[in-house]
Design brief:
Length: 324
């Protein structure tokens, strides 16, 4: 694993250097025409087994946990955790797009906001501060924060999250414009380092929040790698009509029967590792561009050569652009 991470870091550093100094096309090209990697449920490297079950979970799950307690939560964690690296580790490995789900915690007197999916993760402000520390040390790095699910949140909670973003990122946040106008060169000239996508009507009221529909992420909802690949290919064909950023979710979703069969093994061993070769083969055949691949999401992003493979797709694209 350490060797794979090291290779991913070298690949990202090489790409940044090339885009910034050696190959001006890389920085002039609009970002929605580039290929970049995104972690699925980016915050799930930490799951608090002592926390209550998330408010979005069905009654069957709530009852399961109420009967079996900590044992049930330990089993849930094996299927809910889709990442092993924290935010700093993911950034160091080359991840720049983060999949974020926010929730209030039942009967929390402090009204804190937490990352959550099934069970609760870290406090939101802690994760955002961790990402900001990386940006402060790397002035030409840009991250995309995709807030796509909100659980148990009222108007007050959204206002609190918006203020939190202001306090932490301030002028680093790029106001919403057309996706076709956003290039690294544009962001560098304006000293912008953060684009925040917000899948809620609240986005229409705040200039630095990009509407969620500008970051569509079609979901295959299948455990079958072949069906997933067919879905991904069809989705890219439809992409050209949207004029936005676009996410290809190279992730398999377990059914209840899958979880039962591999209850003690977990998501990584039962599904992700077994399907990885087929999914990576599909990624290697893709090309970025207006009607091509853009943002690629995966579970356990350190597996194989996922991050470096996605980044390297831009090399071929740049060379093709330079020769036209």
């Amino acid at each position: 694993m350490a060797q794979a991470l090291l290779l991913n870091v070298f690949a990202m550093r090489a790409y940044i250097t090339r885009a910034e100094t050696l190959h001006p096309i890389g920085s002039n090209q609009i970002i929605s025409h580039r290929s970049s990697s995104r972690s699925h449920d980016s915050f799930s490297f930490y799951i608090d087994e002592a926390s209550p079950v998330g408010p979005e979970q069905p009654e069957t799950v709530q009852n399961f946990v109420s009967v079996f307690g900590t044992v049930a939560k330990k089993l849930m964690r094996k299927w809910l955790a889709t990442q092993t690296m924290n935010f700093t580790g993911q950034l160091g490995a080359g991840i720049r797009y983060f999949d974020l789900r926010i929730s209030t915690k039942p009967r929390d007197p402090d009204n804190e906001l937490y990352f959550a999916h099934g069970l609760f993760s870290a406090k939101v402000n802690e994760g955002l501060e961790e990402i900001n520390a990386f940006l402060t040390d790397h002035h030409k790095e840009v991250v995309f924060l995709d807030f796509n699910h909100f659980y148990g949140m009222q108007k007050y909670h959204h206002e609190k999250l918006v203020q939190m973003l202001k306090d932490i990122y301030g002028n680093k946040m790029c106001p919403a414009i057309f996706a076709q106008e956003v290039s690294l060169k544009y962001l560098w000239e304006k000293d912008y380092q953060v684009l925040v996508f917000y899948h809620s009507p609240v986005a229409l009221e705040v200039p630095f929040l990009w509407p969620g529909q500008m970051m569509p992420a079609p979901w295959a909802n299948t455990t079958d790698p072949e069906k997933l690949i067919q879905f991904l290919q069809a989705s890219i064909t439809e992409r050209r009509k949207k004029g936005s950023f676009f996410i290809s979710q190279v992730v398999l979703t377990p059914k209840a029967s899958t979880v039962v069969k591999g209850v003690a093994s977990g998501l990584r061993e039962t599904i992700t590792e077994r399907a990885l070769p087929a999914m990576m083969q599909w990624v290697r055949t893709q090309k970025p561009g207006e009607s091509g691949i853009n943002i690629v999401t995966a579970d356990f992003v350190e597996l194989g050569d996922f991050i470096s493979t996605v980044i390297k797709l831009n090399y071929v694209f740049d060379e093709g652009e330079a020769n036209t």
